[in-house]
Hints:
The longest helix is centred in the C-terminal third of the chain and has 17 residues, at 233-249. The protein is α/β, with parallel strands linked by helices. It has one domain (11-208, 253-290): TIM Barrel, CATH 3.20.20. The relative contact order is 0.12. It has 13 helices and eight strands. The site of NADP nicotinamide-adenine-dinucleotide phosphate has 28 residues, from helix 12.
Amino acid sequence: MTQxxxxxxxxxxxxxxxxxxxxxxxxxxxxxxxxxxAMFADCRAAGLRHFDTAYVYAEGxxxxxxGRLIAPxxxxxxxxxxxxxxxxxGSANMRAQFDIxxxxxxxxxxxxxxxxxFDPETPLEDTLTxxxxxxxxxLIRHIGLSNFAAWQVMKAVALAARLGLQxxxxxxxxxxxxxxxxxxxxxxxxxxNILPVPYSPLGGGLLTGKYARGGGSGRLAExxxxxxxxxxxxxxxxxxxxxxLAEELGTEPATLAVAWAAxxxxxxxxxxxxxxxEQLAPSLAATTFxxxxxxxDRIAALSPRPAPATDRLEEA
Length: 316
Ligand SMILES: NC(=O)c1ccc[n+]([C@@H]2O[C@H](COP(=O)([O-])OP(=O)(O)OC[C@H]3O[C@@H](n4cnc5c(N)ncnc54)[C@H](OP(=O)(O)O)[C@@H]3O)[C@@H](O)[C@H]2O)c1
């Protein structure tokens, strides 16, 4: 894949947002105030500046906790939130949720606003007009989409261009056990100068190896949606093989999984996450891990490569 030149998104004080983000989905849920503050401090110590939350996370507690943590150094940070997970992508719902996001975060303007998922009931023109108005009013700096198929993004790109806008960021799911994004999403981002900021680089915890080690407790054991998402047998074999490889190399599978997700040629910015500082440490170690091309290929070989979009396997 030829690398495109993309002017890096930056913080208000002009720093590039960096190669990794932290996701605050657990703030106010599985991570209480103290655990959230400790993880935030760990991220800052590791040089992370980009923090991701959403209107729906922990019924608003995630945004409130993040708002308190960023206050002393707002200008140095890049804050992203999402609207429209429920209630649709129409302007009235997006604006109503966005105003609540700003109140909870205690911010007048937000660096990056995502539509959380595609809404087949709302014309994309309405959504993009809403983004255009928010941007024109200085309430958002960048525009993001999440959980969109490539054709939906390209439709949004074309409509946005008519309004003089660009889609800045796409947030897809991507990990060693969820590689669909390699087929169209990541090449499209590269081609369109859209920054890919993928979520769940650990497959919701599967790629930490804790379930392969036996007796692992966590999201996959507690949440039926995640159990189904990561329920296929080959995914568990992959996690087990990654654990073996990490043991051979004297590192943690989580470190390999996060570093691998970041090393795709489209240069995605994975969103790390955890429920405690202890959990977060191996993911943060990925930010300084040296991923060689040989190791990248070895890790990639642990899971099936998705078929090309044309299905012409012999040409892949
Ligand atoms: N746009 C979207 O639709 C969407 C969807 C999901 C997430 N996101 C964003 O992406 C961020 C990351 O997503 P994610 O939480 O799914 O990422 P992930 O990295 O795949 O999973 C993180 C989870 O893995 C487990 N874990 C992490 N480190 C561990 C360790 N060392 N040992 C044992 N378990 C460990 C923890 O869950 P347990 O302890 O419960 O196992 C932790 O919450 C979120 O915070 C959110 O900002 C966006």
